[in-house]
Write a structure and sequence with these properties.
The chain has 463 residues and is α/β, with parallel strands linked by helices. The protein is built from 16 helices and eleven strands. The chain starts with a helix and ends in a 16-residue tail after the last helix. It is found in: Secreted. InterPro entries: AB_hydrolase_fold, Lip-like_C. Pfam families: Lip_C.
């Protein structure tokens, strides 16, 4: 009887979580559609002679004009379920922060593809050419070696003399770290001159460096960090994504894509039997593990971190979001009203999550209490700096004077109050803090982290 009661509670929680996520997804999608319709009507009413031709794919794939500025660009990299410029109409993942500087790029990467695949896509988005996932990797995970084509590239002159600033939200921060390691390892065929110094700075906004216990709450198995529970939110997500890609409605895929085109899951390429094979878990990205959730478990992050370095000539700065506090020694949500409904339940669950006592801990010295503070999606301990399996040089910033002058090769981190999406999508939620955060990021990129001496400041003439 007790077991039936527990099962009923778990099914109720699954229903509520699924409902909240679907409602929020519908809200985002409908907001984007409403914005597009409003923009089209305005253009039709006030500029009737103009031609209304919207092609989101080309907007996301091709730069409008070559970039010839002296200042290095700032590249904003989205996280899981995210999207870049040109997707979801005129909606901005970074809530319009890209408008704060005229040298900002917002690439559209796979929203659920693996960290590895996204890092490869990011390279070719900037340099141009056809995305090459690598022969060995593609054969191992059962997808096409080549992907989207960027005919010109958004910053084709990118090299050590023309480095880039990167700002990554959530999983986007780890994508940039993997990309930098690939550059150091000269992992791109035909580009033997790449080095880690192609990246001048990495700024993380709620970045996931050490995994998150939310993956286990959503359905990843804590035993291995790769397989999924039979009944879970992630299983529902898996089924929905497979059907979405199989139906392959062109205009809908242009509007939003999960990024699995290189797995060829459309009905034209795999047919009905291929669909059934995917749904049964025998093929596709969810069967091979080449998608993002395994990379976000504690085990998956440790596996990635084993091969990732902190480089001595790169500047690192992290903004760590947290919406929990201690109440009589118990970790609880810090507020009812300031936490998004999408995350409130998860904040509570993550603060109370315990690693199964009958399983081997994910790393030596693991303690549940270290992972209680969170922002509804990531644990605070994961966002500060790379910690596992080896802790990297770091410094906790309380006052801005703590990091002046900013030194390369050190992970500076600052803890701020907010949930995981406080500083994306909906600008009004963050209020004035939104501008303080992004103004600080862009000012640091423009004034404090130029590698060459003397630095060229934005208000000074360029040579």
């Amino acid at each position: 009887m007790f077991r039936l009661w527990i099962d009923a509670l778990q099914l109720t929680e699954l229903f509520l979580s699924s409902f909240v996520h679907l409602v929020y997804a519908f809200y985002i999608f409908s907001s984007a559609v409403a914005g597009d319709i409003s923009q089209s009507l305005n253009q039709w009413l006030f500029s009737p002679s103009s031609k209304l031709h919207l092609n989101n794919h080309h907007l996301s794939s091709l730069p409008s004009t070559p970039i010839h500025h002296t200042l290095p660009p700032i590249v904003l990299v989205h996280g899981i379920f995210g999207f870049g410029q040109g997707r979801l109409g005129g909606l901005s993942y970074f809530a319009g922060a890209e408008k704060k500087d005229d040298r900002v790029l917002v690439p559209d990467l796979g929203s659920l593809t693996s960290i590895y695949d996204r890092a490869r896509e990011l390279f070719y988005y900037l340099k141009g050419g056809r995305v090459d996932y690598g022969e060995e990797h593609s054969n191992t995970y059962g997808h096409s070696q080549f992907g989207r084509v960027y005919e010109l590239g958004h910053y084709p002159q990118w090299d050590e003399d023309h480095p880039i600033h990167f700002v990554g939200h959530s999983a986007g921060a780890q994508v940039v770290r993997v990309l930098q390691q690939m550059l150091a390892d000269k992992a791109f065929k035909g580009y033997e001159n790449t080095t880690e110094n192609w990246i001048i700075s990495i700024t993380s906004l709620s970045g996931v460096f050490n995994g998150t216990t939310r993956t286990y709450l959503d359905g990843m198995q804590p035993e291995d960090g790769r397989s999924m529970k039979t009944v879970s939110l992630l299983q529902l997500c898996r089924l929905g994504v497979i059907v979405y890609d199989w139906i392959n409605i062109p205009w809908l895929k242009e509007y939003y894509s999960f990024g699995f085109d290189h797995f060829n899951m459309s009905w034209k390429k795999m047919g009905i039997w291929g669909l059934l094979d995917c749904l049964m878990g025998n093929s596709g990205p969810f069967a091979t593990g080449d998608w993002i959730l395994p990379d976000l478990t504690i085990q998956g992050s440790i596996s990635l971190n084993t091969h990732l370095q902190t480089f001595p000539n790169t500047y690192y700065f992290n903004y760590v979001t947290k919406c929990t506090r201690k109440f009589f020694g118990v970790t609880v949500p810090s507020s009812i009203f300031r936490i998004h409904p999408l995350f409130f339940l998860r904040v509570l669950q993550m603060s109370q999550w315990r690693h199964p006592s009958d399983l081997t801990p994910p790393y030596k010295g693991y303690r549940d209490e270290d992972w209680q503070d969170n922002d509804g999606a990531l644990n605070t301990i994961s966002m500060t700096h790379p910690r596992f399996p080896v802790e990297h040089p770091n410094l906790h910033v309380v006052n801005d004077s703590d990091c002046k002058p900013l030194e390369p090769g050190i992970w500076y981190y600052k803890v701020i109050e907010g949930d995981h999406i406080m500083f994306i999508v909906n600008r009004e939620r963050a209020g004035v803090q939104f501008d303080l955060i992004y103004d600080g990021i862009f000012e640091r990129c423009r004034k404090h982290v130029f590698r060459k001496n003397p630095p060229t400041l934005p208000n000074q003439p360029h040579p």
